[in-house]
Write a structure and sequence with these properties.
By secondary structure, the chain is mainly alpha-helical. The protein has one domain: Tetracycline Repressor, domain 2, CATH 1.10.357.10. Helices cover about 70% and strands about 0% of the residues. It has 9 helices and no strands. The longest helix is centred in the middle third of the chain and has 25 residues.
Length: about 190
């Protein structure tokens, strides 16, 4: 059977998107290549037509995760007035729905401890993704100077990452919402 020329690229992207969601749900080590391939209708053997190794798939899925989250946050920021853009980011990031669905959320809330323990060879690539993520968000942060915006980015995102991580540990929806609301209120009143 002959496929269209773009079929391989479309299949590759489908694999990466599925892996991106699985990695945020199951972790770096919990995501099985066989499951990702099965979800896309392919065999485990077809994996090597698209990726050199599982690490290659993991890095592409992380890039996809950061890109997807950044696109979501930029979209929220651009729908608001410029001076309120960072507040739209905070509200979107700390939404209960995003907290309840890690497969749609920020890879940092789902994977930070694992990313910190990643193999040395992957750390450089992970760092590059973090820098790219920060660069996309920084222009929306409060502050006049670049250094102020960068400082705000780290303070705001560190708070949000921690709040979502803690909220996800809690068994009751009301407790999760309380943690998110307290972090959201704190940040919105801090700048």
């Amino acid at each position: 059977m002959r496929y269209r020329p773009e079929h391989k690229a479309e299949t590759h992207q489908k694999i990466v998107k599925d892996a991106s969601r699985r990695v945020r749900m199951e972790g770096l080590n919990g995501t099985a290549v066989a499951s990702v391939m099965r979800d896309t209708g392919l065999t485990h053997g077809g994996f090597y037509k698209h990726f050199g190794s599982k690490d290659d798939l993991l890095m592409e899925s992380l890039r996809e995760s950061f890109q997807e989250m950044a696109d979501t946050l930029v979209h929220a920021a651009e729908r608001s007035r410029p001076e309120l853009a960072w507040k739209a980011i905070v509200k979107t990031y700390l939404s209960p729905d995003r907290c309840d669905h890690p497969e749609q959320g920020c890879p940092l809330t789902a994977l930070a401890p694992e990313l910190a323990r990643a193999e040395k060879g992957m750390k450089g690539e992970i760092f590059a993704e973090l820098v790219h993520y920060k660069d996309r968000m920084q222009s929306y942060m409060p502050g006049r100077r670049t250094v102020d915006k960068e400082r705000a980015f780290f303070a705001i995102f560190s708070t949000m990452i921690g709040a979502v991580a803690i909220a996800r540990m809690l068994p009751e929806p009301a407790l999760r919402e309380s943690v998110l609301a307290n972090a959201r209120d704190f940040l919105l009143k801090s700048y």
